[in-house]
Specification:
- The protein has two domains: 170 residues, Alpha-Beta Complex (Quinone Oxidoreductase, Chain A, domain 1), CATH 3.90.180; 80 residues, 3-Layer(aba) Sandwich (Rossmann fold), CATH 3.40.50.
- Helices cover 27% and strands 28% of the residues.
- It has eight helices and 15 strands.
- α5 crosses α6.
- The termini are far apart.
Length: 256
């Protein structure tokens, strides 16, 4: 029960806690109001706290979790019990900041890290903040996400985009981080060979991350032809169809 209370106290993003009148006016947001049922509604633009920034959203990605909440209304213990704004992959422009914010200013183009942690627990203090038990993650019930014109976020979870990076590229930095984290967990190095099973967005971005790590020998597989074609454009070493190919035999032959 305590964990639930803590999550509600830290519900940073939620439009449900925004007063009906905002000094910033109103904006549009897309809410899931039931299973396979979404509506575009006007909501009050959120007001940033002292340590937050107000971000105008320019681009979002649609995660598999968003689709799952839309189609099934829940993932594990997280259930959509009231209308919710989905999406946690986003980039945008800072349009206002709280009085304590120093790391970003109005006009900065930013990517957003969607899981805000407490910064005080043993996991946060040891550098493993992804394990924080009080993390507040965008688009995870009851916390609203970014399928809206404006969101607020604690400013230390904003990252400035270089001038040459588009908002579209900025929005996929969050799923790219999944591949980077996996490679770090696996202690991958440029001397390694890599096999990626499944070539959806995460799999394709994992290939990109592997190239950033200097890995040149990459094998991949997927049952969907167009996904294999996308992987081919990334110039992986070999691509397999697991329905028709004996992947173990092929890789064993290619890596003799």
């Amino acid at each position: 029960m305590q964990a639930v209370q803590s999550r509600n106290e830290l519900r940073t993003f939620s439009h449900a806690r925004i007063p009906p009148v905002s000094p910033y006016g109103v904006g549009l947001a897309t809410l899931v109001v039931g299973v396979s049922n979404i509506e575009v509604k006007q909501v009050a633009v959120p007001v940033p706290k002292k340590d937050e920034a107000l971000v105008k959203v320019y681009c979002i990605g649609v995660c598999g979790s968003d689709v799952h909440y839309y189609e099934h209304g829940k993932i594990g213990r997280y259930e959509v019990k009231e209308p919710i704004i989905l999406d946690h992959e986003l980039a945008g422009e800072v349009v206002d900041v709280g009085e304590d914010v120093k790391n970003v200013t109005v006009g900065d183009r930013v990517a957003v890290e969607p899981g805000v942690t407490c910064g005080r627990c043993e996991y946060c203090k040891s550098g493993r903040y992804n394990l924080c038990p009080d993390v507040v993650f965008m688009a995870t019930p009851p916390v609203d996400g970014a399928w809206a014109e404006y969101v607020t976020i604690r400013s230390d979870f904003l990252f400035k985009l270089p001038d040459e990076m588009s908002y579209e590229e900025g929005a996929i930095l969050e799923p790219l981080s999944v591949g980077i984290h996996a490679l770090k967990r696996g202690k991958a190095s440029m001397a390694d060979r890599l096999f990626v099973s499944g070539l959806g967005p995460i799999g394709l971005l994992a290939i990109q991350a592997a190239k950033m790590f200097g890995i040149t020998e990459i094998y991949a597989s997927d049952v969907v032809p167009y996904r294999r074609e996308l992987a081919k454009k990334l110039e992986v070493t070999a691509i397999f169809d697991p329905i028709h190919d004996d992947i173990n035999e092929h890789i064993s032959t290619l890596t003799l």
